[in-house]
């Protein structure tokens, strides 16, 4: 019998992981990448004897697939995707594919902001509780690779809207939706409703015994929920009002009041991750832990000793009385809003990069209150100048992390904060947000 042919588009962490699992499951596997494949991934494919091509897609090797696994970064409008759609070859995500070959339970976390922090915190709590848990998706290692090589009882998955777009039969045992704010609108015809519908796919196929955890303060989430049939048990969280079967803020105390559990009350001063946005992230994480019946003392301890994530409001150094903070992971306007909201000093803001159709209006009040100068870090900074020229006296263009840090150093006064929080993607000057953050840190350490 002829082997079923699986073609994988994209040879990064997700694509190579999918190739490993497809080979293990006995498929005829071929990997195609439009760009060049990074050294370690190429080596991995060669070690496994998996055929691949790079620097272009060959139609004859792709359009004969039984099924295609597409890396999340490849847009729907890519010619190869259009050609596959035209002839009706199914296209799925790596998460969808991997889920077919594991019986592990899944906790799936999505949202425009806070995904990585919440995913890491949930993983931290579960690991501390002695659960055999894997971490995958947008964070850590590929889900498919871990299904191929490991044997976890449970996975915590950070899920982006791009992954959700190519998921059909996948089901989350516990789904978490943190918030919906404008992001990646260039991939959704510049319509927030399209992006919101994509986020709501996190609830697809859930049953009445599964859980859906969501923010009851987030207008866009509540709007999208009205358009979605949700079968799962709903667990809301709020800092604005009391909720049932979820978590809420009572003064400075977070109250977890799930029906199936002993109530847990925790002061926000006990949280390792501070700031309003992290109260939300901690609430969502605590509800997950409650649902999984982790002991209250273990939840409290883990939430109290969690370390902040690299590139997310990461304190780099204090030099001559000035704090330098790396928030390179802030690739949308809302993330930068959170960053500015959490800083209590005057700010020299380093921002810019690839603008994804950003609306900078929501930053204006905070910029007026806190920002002394903006240092642009990107090839085209016109829209940042237009947005803030009436609010900030100094807006300077720079073209490297080193130059941006040097300029910020000269503009900052004792007691200020230099904040890298770009509100944009990084691909104009850097490989990715990690590269941008790392270059920023190196430049700070050279001061």
TrEMBL record:
EC number(s) on file: 6.3.2.9
UniProt domain Mur ligase central: residue ranges: 109-288
Binding site for ATP: 111-117
Record keywords, A-Z: ATP-binding, Cell cycle, Cell division, Cell shape, Cell wall biogenesis/degradation, Cytoplasm, Ligase, Nucleotide-binding, Peptidoglycan synthesis
Short name of one Pfam family: Mur_ligase_C
GO cellular component: a single term: cytoplasm
InterPro entries: Mur-like_cat_sf, Mur_ligase_C, Mur_ligase_C_dom_sf, Mur_ligase_cen, MurD
Catalytic activity reported: UDP-N-acetyl-alpha-D-muramoyl-L-alanine + D-glutamate + ATP = UDP-N-acetyl-alpha-D-muramoyl-L-alanyl-D-glutamate + ADP + phosphate + H(+)
A single GO molecular function term of this UniProt record: ATP binding
Superkingdom assignment: Bacteria
UniProt feature coiled coil, ranges: none
Record's subcellular location: Cytoplasm
Main localization category: cytoplasm
Function: Cell wall formation. Catalyzes the addition of glutamate to the nucleotide precursor UDP-N-acetylmuramoyl-L-alanine (UMA).
Family per record: Belongs to the MurCDEF family.
Name used for this protein in its record: UDP-N-acetylmuramoylalanine--D-glutamate ligase
């Amino acid at each position: 019998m002829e082997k079923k042919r699986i073609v994988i588009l994209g040879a990064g962490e997700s694509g190579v992981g999918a190739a490993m699992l497809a080979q293990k499951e006995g498929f005829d596997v071929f990997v195609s990448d439009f760009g060049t494949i990074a050294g370690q991934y190429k080596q991995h494919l060669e070690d496994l004897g998996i055929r691949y091509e790079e620097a272009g897609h060959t139609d004859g090797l792709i359009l004969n697939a039984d099924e295609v696994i597409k890396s999340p970064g490849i847009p729907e409008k890519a010619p190869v995707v259009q050609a596959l759609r035209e002839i009706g070859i199914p296209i799925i995500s790596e998460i969808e594919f991997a889920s077919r070959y594991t019986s592990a339970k899944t906790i799936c976390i999505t949202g425009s902001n806070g995904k990585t922090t919440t995913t890491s915190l949930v993983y931290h709590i579960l690991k501390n509780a002695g659960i055999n848990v894997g971490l995958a998706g947008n964070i850590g290692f590929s889900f498919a690779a871990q299904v191929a090589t490991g044997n976890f009882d449970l996975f915590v998955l950070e899920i982006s809207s791009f992954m959700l777009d190519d998921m059909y039969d996948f089901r989350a045992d516990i789904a978490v939706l943190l918030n919906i704010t404008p992001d990646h609108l260039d991939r959704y015809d510049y319509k927030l409703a399209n992006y919101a519908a994509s986020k709501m796919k996190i609830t697809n196929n859930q049953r009445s015994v599964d859980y859906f955890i969501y923010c009851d303060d987030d207008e866009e989430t509540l709007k999208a929920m009205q358009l979605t049939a949700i079968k799962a048990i709903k667990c809301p969280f709020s800092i604005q009002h009391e909720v049932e079967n979820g978590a809420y803020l009572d003064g400075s105390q977070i109250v977890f009041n799930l029906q199936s559990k002993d109530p847990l009350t925790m002061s926000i001063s006990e949280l390792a991750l501070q700031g309003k946005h992290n109260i939300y992230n901690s609430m969502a994480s605590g509800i997950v832990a409650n649902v999984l019946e982790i002991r209250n003392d273990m939840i409290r301890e883990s939430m109290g000793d969690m370390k902040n994530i690299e590139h997310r409001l990461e304190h780099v150094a204090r030099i001559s009385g000035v704090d330098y903070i790396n928030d390179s992971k802030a690739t949308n306007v809302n993330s930068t809003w959170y960053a500015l909201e959490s800083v209590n000093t005057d700010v020299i803001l380093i921002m810019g990069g690839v603008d994804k159709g950003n609306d900078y209006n929501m930053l204006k009040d905070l910029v007026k209150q806190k920002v002394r100068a903006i240092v642009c870090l990107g090839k085209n900074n016109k829209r940042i100048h237009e947005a803030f020229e009436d609010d900030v006296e100094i807006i300077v263009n720079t073209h490297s992390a080193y130059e941006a840090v040097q300029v910020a150093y000269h503009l900052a006064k004792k007691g200020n904060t230099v904040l890298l929080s770009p509100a944009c993607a990084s691909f104009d000057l850097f490989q990715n947000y990690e590269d941008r953050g790392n270059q920023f840190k190196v430049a700070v350490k050279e001061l």
